[in-house]
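Q&A log
Question type: sequence-to-structure
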Amino acid sequence: MYPSDFDRKKLGEYFYRAKITKTIPYKKLLQEAGVTKDSGFTNAGILFFAKNPQHFISHSVFSCVLFKDKEGSE
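Response status: OK
Response body:
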């Protein structure tokens, strides 16, 4: 699976949004972030950076919410 199913575009988007410079080799960054191990992607790595996460975790679905305040009431 890894690296053949790895989506570099997703990683590039992650770098951009997280404001991370690309000076660290991406393999080391992925390993330090805990999304890869020697044997391949962790579940988090599959969900964030696989080309087709549903192929590996068929029930994977993301739901995100952004609240205006810290209490989560608005």
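Response note: The chain has four helices and two strands.
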